[in-house]
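Checklist before submission:
- one chain only
- standard amino acids only
- sequence pasted in full

Submission:
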Amino acid sequence: KDGASDSEKYGIHHAVITVENYGEIKVELDGDTAPITVKNFIELAKSGFYDGLTFHRIISGFMIQGGDPKGNGTGGSDENIKGEFSLNGVENSISHKRGVISMARSGSAYEQYLAYGYKMSDLPEEAQADIEKALNSASSQFFIMHKDTPSLDGSYAAFGHVTEGMEVVDKIAENTPVT
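Returned file contents:
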């Protein structure tokens, strides 16, 4: 998707995630902070993409992750979007606190070099290509923070927060056995 330009503002939107046998999670999406991410999420939701999917990665005390049509963490939609976070050159002031919704993405073993202050141009071309691919690999998978994890700030596109239903997030996180 082309996404929104810097001059476009996408505004505030609301969505409801209905989880069978648990209840509803209501979220407010901040399209002014993460317009590409919010637009992608809304388009997927409106198309029915998320219907029937589950939270496939659940880590109590960290987050619950869903949005994978394969249900195992390897699937996504047909398109990837730009990661809207500082590591990718985009300002995003939403911190990964309890109740924040954020986009999952692939990682790169080379990303740590950027965190240590290296510039992309300092790295070999292979590393640059791998990082670029990872930073722009978000698709359909998203996660909701169960607990504050500010170490994710700047590396993942937070795009909103839960307004109602944190008890549903808690139930999912705390009632899922570790396998």
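Reviewer check: Strands lie at 12-19, 23-30, 55-59, 63-66, 100-103, 142-145, 158-164.
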